[in-house]
Amino acid sequence: MNDLQHTLTHLDAAGRANMVDVTDKAATTREAQAQAWVRMQPSTLKLIQDNGHPKGDVFAVARIAGIMAAKKTHELIPLCHPLMLSSIHLELSVVEPDSVRIVSTCRLNGQTGVELEALTAASVAALTIYDMCKAVDRGMVIDRIQVLKKQGGKSGTFVAGDAQ
């Protein structure tokens, strides 16, 4: 096996993709925070803020979609462990004049991290905003999807250099 294969944890001794065996890892409290941004026309953002969208409360639906998605991450991402998350929180904030910032935080006490769940929650919440608003603003852009921080587990704490 080459050096790259040693750093990729989803490869077995023969270089084949497999689910990482976490049986012998200690359960610890793990938390990850991720973000996604949705940029849109100011008029679209005003429609959302004024709760004037004919489909209802865009932020409430996006928050629920993100929570549901985090719980199903293992069904979406190959080789991802099914996890019993103890907490999923999504914060949607308006960043004037044309953006929504979504920050998701996932937490558990377990044997593996929750970065993918946090990323999935933020991404699906952003996609839900796009879906609900695409009829009035097809030019929306989803970007800046990233892990902001993670803590717990063997690899310790990570904080992104550019958390905004």
UniProtKB/TrEMBL annotation:
Q: What is its EC number?
A: 4.6.1.17
Which reaction is the catalytic activity of this chain? Answer: (8S)-3',8-cyclo-7,8-dihydroguanosine 5'-triphosphate = cyclic pyranopterin phosphate + diphosphate
Looking at the record, the residues that make up the Molybdopterin cofactor biosynthesis C (MoaC) domain are: 19-153
* The protein's annotated pathway: Cofactor biosynthesis; molybdopterin biosynthesis
What is its EC class?
lyase
Domain of life of the native organism: Bacteria
Q: List the keywords (alphabetical).
A: Lyase, Molybdenum cofactor biosynthesis
Catalytic residues identified in the record: 131
Entry binding sites for substrate: 79-81
Which range is the signal sequence, renumbered to this chain? none
Example GO molecular function term?
A: cyclic pyranopterin monophosphate synthase activity
InterPro entries cross-referenced by the UniProt entry? MoaC, MoaC_bact/euk, MoaC_sf, MoCo_biosynth_MoaA/MoaC, Mopterin_CF_biosynth-C_dom
GO aspect biological process, one term: Mo-molybdopterin cofactor biosynthetic process
Which family does this protein fall into? Belongs to the MoaC family.
Q: How does it assemble?
A: Homohexamer; trimer of dimers.
Q: Which PANTHER family match?
A: MOLYBDOPTERIN COFACTOR SYNTHESIS PROTEIN A (PTHR22960)
Explain the purpose of this protein.
Answer: Catalyzes the conversion of (8S)-3',8-cyclo-7,8-dihydroguanosine 5'-triphosphate to cyclic pyranopterin monophosphate (cPMP).
Which NCBIfam families does this one have? moaC, PRK09364.1
Please identify the protein, giving its name as recorded. Answer: Cyclic pyranopterin monophosphate synthase
